[in-house]
Design goal:
single chain, about 150 residues, alpha/beta, five-stranded parallel sheet, about 50% helix
């Protein structure tokens, strides 16, 4: 171990670009994790969503493309196109005190953006499904098909 520590300054001097890249990536990871911890909405696993459905009957909103929604969605989810998603909508505003779970196809952004908008609009219990419908299917949980 001490041999590694003695050779570290020489390695860093010879590979400055690699050392800088490592520090930049490490800093980026730390910043992203800190941001994740302090955001006002939580990410659920498929098992966590199942528990929430069984305990609190949340409002499930699927932001996937309509064709993807018809192929497979979490049972009980309502489809809303991201372009039409409006937290100020009178029907959605009635659900401010209910848990709201936002779901997209693969958990890569649409649900996070919508969750930020809901939090900004005053919703207190906002969740996203990590990995989206794809994670739900990978967990071998039941899916609904069609527009129901």
């Amino acid at each position: 171990m001490s041999d590694v520590l003695h050779k570290l300054p020489e390695f860093l001097g010879n590979h400055l670009a690699l050392a800088a890249l490592f520090l930049a990536l490490l800093l980026a990871i730390v910043v992203m994790e800190i941001m994740r911890l302090f955001r006002k909405y939580k990410e659920l696993t498929p098992a966590g969503l199942t528990l929430l459905i069984n305990r609190e009957s949340p409002l499930l909103i699927d932001l996937s493309a309509y064709a993807d929604f018809e192929k497979a969605h979490v049972p009980g989810a309502k489809h809303v196109a991201m372009s039409q998603f409006d937290p100020e909508n009178k029907d959605l505003a009635k659900a401010k005190e209910l848990p709201v779970v936002l779901i997209d196809k693969d958990g890569r952004g649409a649900s996070d953006k919508a969750a930020q908008r809901l939090v900004k609009a005053g919703f207190s219990k906002v969740f996203t499904l990590g990995g989206g419908v794809f994670a739900w299917q990978q967990a071998q949980l039941p899916v609904a098909k069609g527009n129901k």
